[in-house]
Write a structure and sequence with these properties.
By secondary structure, the protein is of the alpha/beta class. The chain is built from 25 helices and nine strands. It binds a DNA duplex through helix 2, strand 5 and helix 18.
Length: 505
Amino acid sequence: MILKLPKKSKDDVVNIVLDTISMKKQALVFVASKISAESTAELIAKSLQSNEELNEISEKILHALPKPTSQCEKLAKCIKQGVAFHHSGLVAEQRELIEDSFRTNLVKIICCTPTLAYGLDLPAFRTVIKTMKRFGNHGMQYIPVLEYQQMAGRSGRPKYDSYGEAIIISNPEDKEYLIENYIQGESENIYSKLAVEPVLRTYVLSLIASNFVSTKENLLEFFKKTFWAYQFEDMGKIEYLLDSVLGLLEGFGFIDIKEEGIFHSADEEISFKATELGQRVAQLYIDPLTADKLIKAMNIADEKETTDFSYLQLISATLELRPLFRTGKKDYEDIQEKFLSEEQNLVDEIPNSYDYEYDDFLNSVKTADVFERWINETDEETLFAKYSVRPGELKAKLNYADWLFYCIEELSKILSLKKVLKESTRLRIRLEYGVKEELLALLAVKHIGRMRARTLYTNGIKTLNDLRKADLAKLEKLIGKQTALKVKSQFEGKEEKTELNLNDY
DNA sequence: GGACGGTGAAACTTCAGGTTGCCTC
DNA sequence: GAAGTTTCACCGTCC
């Protein structure tokens, strides 16, 4: 089908999008990077009128964080014209606002990275794919057919339209290739991910810990029925892989293996049972390799002088936290310096600077550095401007960090590592709120978070007692009338005991 | 004559994403 | 590979 478009702009995407809007329809524009999502949205917004109905949503988006960042401002401005960008750098609340207002047909166009390619049911009539290439391990590469199909499948959802259109933007010379491979081509085969090492380790341990399997025969029997075995066929190789996982888990002290029966005979039966530690690791649902890494480092940390950074770097070096924040050209020297200044405090293994792992290690230092700045109350805008970490990406990483610190707490209880337990508990709270140690007391009060606690503290209200004694008028001035009342009420009557005996920091 | 500022071209950098645990106003 | 960002040379203006 030939699409005739008025050439209102030099840019093809803008023309398609304007045409879509003139049909009273909506479109999703898929692009290859976050920056591109933003600039494309801004470019489209220039060609559109602002709509007053969107002011409220724009305001909400602007104030999704305690203090608007430049990203918030950019998005809020685009939204007024009915255009949004959508990627992992946005905070969940902003993403939901965009999705909801797209559903109610207020936002007409969303420029997005593949965040929106999977699972969402949105009323897009058109999907526009700005480029079919994306940066990969070997330079720019064509995306998988499956991914193209996912993106194309976002348009013309049954609930909203009887059909949809997917439009690929390309150079004339690539046209043949794209039609042949994507539109007429077949999608790639799907392969089982069960054999991926972290997955295999986690599942074998959890099968044993939950007593689902207790002998090697059971275990083989179980895996024989999986899609992995069906696809892989070679049971000998599978048995070999499982054996090595079992050996690893035993070495970690997460399972006990018993061999019974006539020695070296075919009747020999191998049975296993999870240890107490193994049980807990399975419940915590982390990669056993990570658990082992944490435990080893925790034992070191319990014995020596540690800093916040010791722990922050440790969790940043786990598989769970990947992909890490990357050390760019801009901050390479700072990160290197940070590493040298904290080197003696680290509890993680340090690779040689000529090892191939070294880059990754530096990234763990960068990630830990960002965490450390966060708990020292650096605001989101600074983290973005100086370290290229967007609010949404930070939130996502903090969520994993919280989980890992929870694991450290639980494991240190079992291992009776009191020092580690105490330090990790505090760090976990500081990460959650993004505050310095001195604000912890005030955070025990409801309706007091990062910003308000800091305001109170700098104005001389530093403890719960200060807060209790504080003059209501002064409080109102600092944190607003409503909040001040809510805070004060927590010090009255019976609420006092239940709410405020939490922490005596 | 020198400092400053604006401009544009060249050089340089960087580049998607998500599930698991637990709890709670 | 493409696009955003930084750097730098060049030129004009002002003091």
